[in-house]
Structures are given as C-alpha cells and as structure tokens.
From TrEMBL, chain A:
SUPFAM superfamilies in alphabetical order: Hypothetical protein YojF
InterPro entries (alphabetical): DUF1806, YojF_sf
Protein name, per record: DUF1806 family protein
A Pfam short name: DUF1806
Native source organism of the sequence: Paenibacillus antri
TrEMBL record, chain B:
Species: Paenibacillus antri
SUPFAM superfamilies from the UniProt entry: LmbE-like
Name of protein: Bacillithiol biosynthesis deacetylase BshB2
Phylogenetic lineage: Bacteria, Bacillati, Bacillota, Bacilli, Bacillales
Superkingdom assignment: Bacteria
GO molecular function ontology, one term from the record: hydrolase activity, acting on carbon-nitrogen (but not peptide) bonds, in linear amides
Underlying gene: bshB2
C-alpha cells in the first residue's frame, strides 16, 4: 500500500458514486489490547459486504485522513486512514496503520463482494 | 525411537497459533514417528499485522497467511494440513452443530490418541476460547473409552489461579531450529528481534524463552 494522496483518493471516490457497491468497514484495537495492557479497552467492529450506494463523498484532513460518504438514508464515516492500495483499479481499498504498521481502521468499496 | 502417540490432531483457529506454544512439541512427535493432522479453522483474515513494513492488505492477507501456514507446517514436518474455511473472529458465533460436527468428523475418521487445542476460557482471544470449547464438546460426544487425551494451551492473565500449573512440560530445545523457522514463517505477523539473523546455535536467552512448551491435560 502507498501513503494516501488526497487528489487521487478524491478521484476514486467520485468515480464510485451512484453505483451499487459492497462495503467493508472495520476498526479494531486488536484482540490482545487488554491482555498486554489492562488499562486498554479492547474494541473492534466490522461490517463486511454491506450493500451501499452513495451520492456524494469526500476525503479530508492533513493525514491521517477522514472519509465521509453520503448515502440515501445516512452516512458512512471513517477516521484515521493513512494508506491506499495503488494497484487496485476497480476497487477502493483504504486503511489506517499505526506507527508499528498494524491495521487500525479499514474502509473498502467494491462492485463485487470481497 | 518410537512414540506412544502415533496419531495427533491439532485444532487451532488461526495460522500462527501453532508456532510459539506447540511447534517444538509437534516437531518432537513427528521425529518420534507421529503423524500430525492440523485443522486450522480460519485464515486469520482479520489480523491487524500486515508485515513491517506492511506488505499485506485486508484483501491479500488471507492468501499470504495461508502460504505462511503452509511454510510453517513444512518446517515442523506436519504431514496433513486441513483448512476448515471458517471466518476469523466469528468462531464464537458459528453454528455449533456445524463447527462441532466438523471437529467430530475429524475425531471419528482420524481416531487420534492425542489432541492439542486451546484451553477454553483461558486463552485470551475469543476465537481461541471458542475453538477449545468446540473441541471439548466434540470429544465429549465420543464414547468415554474412545476419547483421546486432550492437551490444552493457556496464557490468559491469572489462569493458574483457576486451572493450576501445567501438568505437561515438553523440552523442545533439540527442536528450536524447527520452532524458530515456524515462527519466522509467519513473517506478516511476527518480528522477533532475538530471532533475527542466522545464528548457528540458539542463544541462552532464546533457549530460556522458547525451550519449553507447557500444556494442561483436560479433565473431562
């Protein structure tokens, strides 16, 4: 993956709008968070292959970045994104990695199920 | 050298669950003539570690981890790897009939004398606990006379307060080469500084940290 380039990601977000898509969205502290440090509160959540369609979307921030996608009935939101997969042409794969390279957050859109 | 354990079944939820706690023991069983089937429930596809620097992503991780698992099994000498196709992080939510049934089928067809899994309730990751619990339920469905011995791994905080000290300790120092190779096979997941480089002999520190594997015999 490559560090996010704002303009490139905005172009990709625009190119996927008003289409039936599958969403993978997750955020995690890791299952071992409280095992290593009892002051930590372990939390993780993911939705995989949710059917979505957005009418408008954008990326903002100075890095790590935020993405908001406006859907017919609500919003999809993600903060902490740092990287994108440059080799994907049809799909948008965004992820946020911490200073150790571990994945903290992921936002992925595809016309086909993941 | 002939092992009393000829057929061994390992049931763990993630690629890499074998490497730190069990790979030396399995290498020893295999050296002594044992036949090991490793049923790995998932591909660890929700793992957070993507390599340092990251070379995997959410989409490529399952394929990469499958290859890492296959390499780890080759380094240990495991003869039979089964990928059961469940999804990472979902074991505790799976249909118990489906999950237990897959494990029971392995027990009935392979008829192992010894099974390795995680100790349910004392293994930190929900998938570990759910995997161990499913193995115990499946073994309990066998007639008492046909049940294999079950050796469990446990590492939650304060686990000894509840289940006491491990009753099995395996000296795996003669198998550190295989064990270190097994850990290093999972290169997207682990970077262990003291295992870096190609030292001919493991250091005292490595022997101390990795030279013994401990298990609890499950009491049915």
């Amino acid at each position: 993956m490559q560090p996010i380039e704002l303009g490139e990601i905005q172009r990709r977000i625009d190119s996927l709008k008003n289409q039936d898509l599958y969403l993978h969205l997750e955020m995690t502290t890791g299952a071992y968070a409280a095992h290593w440090d009892s002051t930590k509160h372990p939390a993780a959540t993911f939705v995989t292959n949710a059917a979505v369609r957005y009418t408008h979307g954008s990326i903002s921030g100075a890095g790590p970045y935020r993405v908001g996608l406006k859907t017919e009935h609500g919003w999809i939101y993600s903060e902490g994104l740092t990287h994108y997969e440059e080799t994907e042409t049809e799909r948008l794969l965004l992820a946020g990695h911490d200073s150790q390279g571990k994945l903290v957050v992921a936002l992925q859109l595809s016309g086909q199920p993941f | 050298m002939e092992s009393t354990e000829r057929k061994i079944l390992v049931v763990l939820p993630h690629p890499d669950d074998e490497c730190f706690g069990l790979s030396g023991t399995l290498s020893k069983h295999i050296r002594e003539g044992g036949y090991v089937t490793y049923a790995c429930l998932t591909l660890g596809e929700m793992g957070r570690n993507m390599g340092v620097p990251p070379f995997a992503n959410r989409v490529t991780l399952p394929r990469i981890r499958k290859e890492e698992l296959e390499l780890s099994c080759r380094t240990i000498g495991i003869q039979d790897l089964r990928l059961l196709g469940f999804h990472d992080k979902t074991i505790e939510f799976e249909d118990k009939e489906l999950l237990d049934g897959k494990i029971l089928e392995l027990l009935q067809t392979l008829r192992p004398s010894l099974v390795y899994t995680f100790y349910p309730g004392f293994s930190v990751h929900p998938d570990h606990d759910a995997c161990g619990a499913a193995v115990i339920r499946a073994v309990e469905r066998l007639p008492e006379a046909d049940r294999p011995v079950v050796h469990c791994m446990a590492f939650s905080r304060d686990h000894e307060q509840y289940i006491g000290k491990p009753d099995v300790a395996v000296d795996v120092k003669p198998f550190l080469k295989q064990k270190i190779a097994s850990i290093q096979a999972h290169r997207s997941q682990f970077q262990v500084p003291e295992l870096q480089g190609n030292k001919k002999q493991p250091t005292k520190e490595v022997e101390e940290r990795f030279g013994t594997e401990r298990f609890w015999t499950y009491r049915f």
